[in-house]
Specification:
single chain; alpha/beta; five-stranded mixed β-sheet; three-stranded antiparallel β-sheet; 36% helix; globular; binds zinc ion
């Protein structure tokens, strides 16, 4: 989905001034969501009829079965008590900041009374960011596990706060990096990385990894597996130089760590890390689209096709 060519100033606002002109009130926001949700015109979700009329509250009423439908129904905006224009302001704020925002930043920008509200909003928006990440990577892909965090001082038994994160990133022929996928590893060093590869990388791709024995199965799963056994270097250097073997993963890893430290000050709980990874992948995979309005468009487009996620579910889903 969503590969159509978009035009700034026609499909999405290019600047904050245009944003304000386009969305002076809730009705304008609802109409925009309606266009994103039904690009070929409204279709009744109940009976499939394409004839409808609009109410004063900008709902659609099916001409055949009289079903009333809101553009927000069944989306992350569903049953929100906040005006949709405030959601739009949040979406613009989040997508127009190059490196994203913290909950405190959003709270301040929108004048929310509580930090918790801003926090919940950010997470709802992050849920909308994961949607397009279902397409499989292809071509030449680097695959490895990295560790995040690691402040383990004072933990009983020397337990570590480190979280293992799986990374797959495309290496393009130009030498640049393509798209990235992340996954939180539950049991590092198991065959989990192989499962992750199967879920994120298209068969026929070439996968570069280190020499871990469990990964050799990749060659039997429809991939061309290329690996380097770093153990060979151990006699010469204390640290086998994986940077040279998997430069893409290494670069993504350092960018991700910098982003987590800068934007979120490492206030990332283990349970919620997956959502932050979603946001980072969303930004990374669109880092070459210069127009912030394009990110805004994509976020809202995905928001209207994303199920509502009540706060309780955010806490319990990982
Ligand atoms: Zn109908």
């Amino acid at each position: 989905m969503g590969q159509e060519r978009l035009i700034g100033g026609v499909d999405y606002p290019r600047t904050y001034q245009e944003f304000q002109q386009w969305f002076p009130n809730d009705a304008a926001c609802v109409d925009y969501l309606g266009q994103l949700r039904w690009p070929d015109g409204f279709v009744c979700p109940k009976c499939g009829c394409d004839r409808s009329w609009r109410t004063a509250k900008r709902q659609w009423v099916c001409a055949q079965c009289a079903q009333r439908t809101s553009a927000m129904a069944g989306t992350i905006f569903h049953r929100s008590h906040t005006p949709i224009s405030t959601w739009f302001a949040a979406a613009w704020f989040v997508t127009s900041q190059k490196n994203g925002v913290s909950a405190a930043g959003l709270q301040q920008a929108l004048g929310f009374g509580s930090y918790e509200t801003a926090w919940a909003w950010l997470h709802k928006l992050r849920r909308a960011m994961v949607r397009p990440e279902r397409e499989l990577l292809s071509g030449v892909v680097e695959l490895d596990g990295i560790f995040l965090g690691g402040r383990s001082a004072g933990k009983p038994g020397g337990a570590s706060d480190k979280v293992a994160v799986m990374v797959a990133v495309e290496r393009l022929e130009t030498g640049r990096l393509g798209r990235v996928r992340f996954g939180v590893a539950e049991r590092p060093h198991s065959g989990e990385l192989v499962d992750f590869a199967r879920a994120t990388i298209a068969p026929g791709s070439t996968i570069h990894t280190d020499g871990a024995y469990t990964l050799r199965r990749l060659g039997k799963l429809g991939y061309t597996h290329s690996y380097v056994t770093t153990n060979n270097f151990l006699t010469q250097a204390s640290n086998p130089d994986l940077d040279e073997v998997l430069p893409g993963v290494h670069l993504v890893s350092s960018l991700l760590k910098r982003w987590l430290a800068g934007t979120l000050q490492y206030a990332v709980s283990h349970e919620l890390l997956a959502y932050y990874l979603d946001e980072y992948a969303f930004r990374f995979n669109r880092r070459n689209s210069r127009a912030p309005g394009m990110l805004f468009y994509r976020l809202l487009q995905q928001a209207v096709t994303t199920d509502p996620h009540p706060l309780a579910e955010l806490y319990s889903s990982r």
